[in-house]
Design a protein that fits this description.
With 146 residues, the chain is mostly helical. The protein contains five helices and no strands. It is elongated and about 55 Å long.
Length: 146
C-alpha cells in the first residue's frame, strides 16, 4: 500500500472518531469508548509505521536540532509517522475533553468549537477547553469521600 493511501486511510479513521465525539450527548460513555478504540487503532498503525521506518534505516535527521528535524521530516515516511502521531494524540485529547465536560456539566454546544480547535490545532483546542471548564458557574465534580 502506498504512503498516500495510508495517509488517506489514517485521516478517514481519525475523522470518524471526531464525528463520533460530536454526538457525545446521545451516549457519552459508549461514544468516548468508541473514539478511544479508534485512537488505539491509530496508535497501532503509528507503532507499525515507526518500527518499519526504523528497521528500514530510520527516519533520518538529527531530532535534537531544528535543521536535523527539518531534514528528517523532508521524507514522506517520516511525515506520515508524525501525522499519525498527531491524529492519535489530538483525538485522545478530544475524547478526554468530552468525557470531562460531561462530568463537569459543560454544555455540549460549548464543546463543538473545542472539538474543532483540537482537531485543527490540538494545543489550542486543549487550552480552549481548559478555559471553558474553568468558567465560574460550571458544575464541579463531586468531592471524593472516604
Amino acid at each position: 500500500m502506498t504512503l498516500d493511501a495510508l495517509f488517506n486511510i489514517a485521516n478517514l479513521v481519525a475523522l470518524a472518531g471526531w464525528i463520533i465525539l460530536a454526538f457525545a450527548p446521545l451516549r457519552r460513555g459508549a461514544i468516548v469508548a468508541a473514539a478511544r478504540c479508534i485512537v488505539v487503532a491509530l496508535a497501532v498503525a503509528y507503532t507499525i509505521l515507526l518500527v518499519q521506518a526504523v528497521a528500514g534505516g530510520g527516519l533520518g535527521g538529527d531530532l535534537t536540532t531544528l535543521s536535523g528535524l527539518t531534514e528528517g521530516f523532508s521524507q514522506p515516511r517520516a511525515v506520515l509517522v508524525g501525522w499519525v502521531h498527531y491524529l492519535a494524540f489530538d483525538l485522545w485529547v478530544g475524547s478526554w475533553a468530552i468525557e470531562d465536560a460531561g462530568k463537569r456539566g459543560v454544555p455540549h454546544w460549548a464543546m463543538l468549537p473545542v472539538l474543532f480547535l483540537t482537531l485543527m490545532a490540538g494545543p489550542i483546542g486543549l487550552l480552549t477547553y481548559l478555559v471553558v471548564r474553568a468558567r465560574p458557574g460550571r458544575q464541579q465534580p463531586p468531592a471524593l469521600t472516604t
